[in-house]
Amino acid sequence: xxxxxxxxxxxxxxxxxxxxxxxxxxxxxxxxxxxxxxxxxxxxxxxxxxxxxxxxxxxxxxxxxxxxxxxxxxxxxxxxxxxxxxxxxxxxxxxxxxxxxxxxxxxxxxxxxxxxxxxxxxxxxxxxxxxxxxxxxxxxxxxxxxxxxxxxxxxxxxxxxxxxxxxxxxxxxxxxxxxxxxxxxxxxxxxxxxxxxxxxxxxxxxxxxxxxxxxxxxxxxxxxxxxxxxxxx
Length: 233
Known about the structure:
five-stranded parallel β-sheet, 11% strand
């Protein structure tokens, strides 16, 4: 049976791995797109490869760009990753782990691939509830990019396709995301969420991303399989 293709942005983290499973569950044949963009560690790409394999994507592309040329983030420059921040701390301001224009860059690559594939659908795992305050994770940003995308492509101008940016996690809590992923059989032991992991991808358990992930599993009442893998629970 023929299934429509969709480009899914896959970082290897909890959110994007869940979105990949959701795209398939919604009847799409996923094409996964990851980036080696000069981030401070490779563990997320190792995770992305594992997730893409276990979820049987047709093709997994790892695009090469280098945002270290610009820096400006703890993920692409010699800036310390904040750790031990409270939920209240994370609810105010934009943290130094924000990578300038990253989602715009990533979505632009996804748009180019989707047009080449003849696909009208892109999936991204942004979240506007339990998140770290990034401006490019908000619903109004996604809506604006979708409008731009339909004005900026040959396929859109000629009416061959109406591009849709799917952000199915945008109004979910981390606990709801974990529950949805578990329902769909996502192996969270394969994923990597930590901004500053140790050997073999061991989570630091102190950065914002680790804290939000821990919050999701705690509220779900389920042990994190990744922490079990490293003997951390």
